[in-house]
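Page 47, continued from p. 46.
Same chain as before, 353 aa.
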Amino acid sequence: MAMRLQDYLDQFTRIGGLAEKLDNDVVRCLACAHSCRLKPGGRGVCKIRYNQDGQLRVPWGYVSSLQVDPIEKKPFYHFLAGADALTFGMLGCNLRCDYCQNWLTSQALREEGTDHLADYLRVLQPEEVVDHGVRLGAEVVASSYNEPLITSEWARDIFDLSTKVGMKNVYVSNGFATREVLDYLKPCLQGFKVDLKTMQPAHYRELGGGLQPVLDSIAYAFELGMWVEIVTLLVPGFNDSEEELKDLASFIHSVSPEIPWHVTAFRPEYKMRAKPRTTVRQILDAVEIGYQTGLQYVYGGNLPGSLGKYEHTSCHNCQAVLIKRWGFSIQQYRITSEGKCPECGTKIPGYWR
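Result:
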């Protein structure tokens, strides 16, 4: 009889550091804002962090995906633009978005018929992950594909090594975090990309999370000095009203007008196949709302070649085009080595090469 995926994954765990011991062998997980209180034998919302005999066991020692991507694919547009990012992922998520585009890995333990995924996992040590990136010339290591918060001990062990060889590290996250996990990652995490999915608390509850912890995590990551970029997947009928777009942009502006906001196009996926795709016009209108709200850098995404200047980076002071893009490809790069506009000398917010 084939081993269940959950049983297989339990072989690749270690005692986790993001935990608080309570009475009667209960532990509280601190990796995400669910802050699950787990009795012995209990599993968190994510299904992959669990209490075994009063110890929190967490994923460690495998990847479901490992490949080099352009940093723009994350997307980061102001973090080492043009760099290659060694990107790794595991399995599992702390949310359950019906439109998830990576649902096969993120929802693997919630869906039937996923036991075969065990055949595609690669058992690796952190040294092997980093060595792979070095051989391929990656400048950045990114934790992505599933939700990285719930595999933070594994990511931290990789990032500690990648830092030693001069690489930078980023998270591609839903941002449903705790202050504890961000403090834990701070010594080795330079970039934090967050999916800010909606400004409606009820909609966040539908997705299995909550709005306020995401807002708090964005503000706290910025306070910690991480480079933050925000993505909102624009889903027709879910988060695309003018009022909500203004609320999204206003919140980002309240943290810092320098934070880039990516408004990306939805495509029918997973359990949300009946909704229409986001149109070019809807993306353009959302981007313009972002600029009207006072944000300095707003981008459209997932529609390469269709969004004109909103794929590019232009100086917020003189409007000179600094980076021209087509999709994930950089066609022109003009930011100086000091991170300034070559036309007017304005410092461009970001983490530049």
